[in-house]
Each structure stands twice: as structure tokens, then as C-alpha cells.
């Protein structure tokens, strides 16, 4: 059997990834399938960290647009990511995957505080680490948190799980003539304003030459295929 091409990865999930076909909240069946996919790559010896968003429960940016104080709205969004992280932890542990939730905002009753060296040690011991509460600061997205945590963990790659199978010239849900990129540079993503991750996250990855692989998370087994180096999705690199 061939070896995984990545040894330590950071998986970026949007809050909507846990929602399935629902309009709001967490679909336990979808969460269980994602947990199963993560469990598969753990069995290959791949060290896995996860950063999860909170858009299925609360969107800070949307609330601030309606008049709420931006910092307050962002803190509420961070708390939504903690709820999602706990749901994913529960699903992972149902698949016998030992998991730790580390939050950027201290709340010892439900999760441990983020301490870089401790998180690295968890990964080395074969535990999945789910990072919650973004960076702990308002005005920063969970995309930026993913780039930051990936750098701190010295991950080989960021795996961005989405509902489409890569990056296209336009939104393939809207424009049927949109074509898919197999590879694309960070600079081209920024210049064309492609909605991969926000500009701060892309710039951070570009400065540190950290590749990003965008793939369809909804296809069962796709995470393992990316880990094994199959040419699915789109790779963003120099």
C-alpha cells in the first residue's frame, strides 16, 4: 500500500459543513460521516488538526451588518465554533478517535485552552485536535485562524473541505461554463478575488509557502484520497 503524501494536516471546515441539507444547526449524520473520514486518515498515521467555523449557528459579520457591535458579534461567532467543535469531538469519539478541543477563549469546563506545545504533543500522540474560537480576536475569520494554527502546528498542508470539487473560474453553481483549476498560485487567487479563503489567510499561506488543497468534503472518502496524493480538487501554491 502506498504511503500518505502528508504527515501532518490541518483540515478547515466551515460551520455549514455540519449542517448537511438543513437550513440551520448540526446534522448528526453528516457530522458522523465527517468523523468517519477523519478516522480513516488517522488510521494511516496522519496527524490531524481541525479548525471549524460557526456559520451554521451564528455569523458575526451578518449580525454586525444589522447593527450589532462588530466585536460583540464576532465573539458570539467564536462561541458558535466551540459548539461545533464539541459536536465534532463527540462524533469522533463515537468512532474511537481520541480528540481534544482547544479553544482560543478560555473555558476550562468544556475544553482546554490553546497552548501551542500542548497541541503539538497531542498530535504526536495520535490525537485529533479541534481548534475552536478562531484566533480569540474579533475581526479575524476562521480562515485566518486555520492559516495561523497550521503554521503554529507546522502542518504540511491546509485541506479546505467545501461543497464543490475545487476552485473554478466562476461559481460553478451559477455559471455552467466555469472551468476548474488543477493548480493555481496564491497571487492569482488574490488578483481574481476567488472565494477560496479570505485575503488575510491566503497572504499568510503565501508568505510561509503553505499549500492549500480545496476539495469536495461531501464525497465520502475524498479526504483519504487527498491524503494519498490523488489529483482531486485544486492545489493553491507558489
Characterization of this structure:
Helix 1 links the parallel strand 1 (8-13) and strand 2. It is built from 8 helices and 11 strands. With 238 residues, it is α/β, with parallel strands linked by helices. The chain is globular. The protein has a single domain (8-237), classed as Carbamate kinase. The protein has helices at 28-43, 60-65, 70-94, 116-124, 142-152, 186-192, 199-207, 222-227, and strands at 8-13, 47-52, 99-103, 112-113, 128-132, 157-162, 167-168, 180-181, 183-185, 212-216, 234-237. The strands form 2 sheets. The protein has a 9-stranded mixed β-sheet with strand order 4-3-5-2-1-6-10-11-9, with helices on both faces. The chain has a two-stranded antiparallel ribbon with strand order 7-8. The model has no long low-confidence stretch (mean pLDDT 94).
Map the helices and strands.
Layout: E1 8-13, H1 28-43, E2 47-52, H2 60-65, H3 70-94, E3 99-103, E4 112-113, H4 116-124, E5 128-132, H5 142-152, E6 157-162, E7 167-168, E8 180-181, E9 183-185, H6 186-192, H7 199-207, E10 212-216, H8 222-227, E11 234-237
Parallel strand pairs: 1-2, 1-6, 2-5, 3-4, 3-5, 6-10, 9-11
Antiparallel strand pairs: 7-8, 10-11
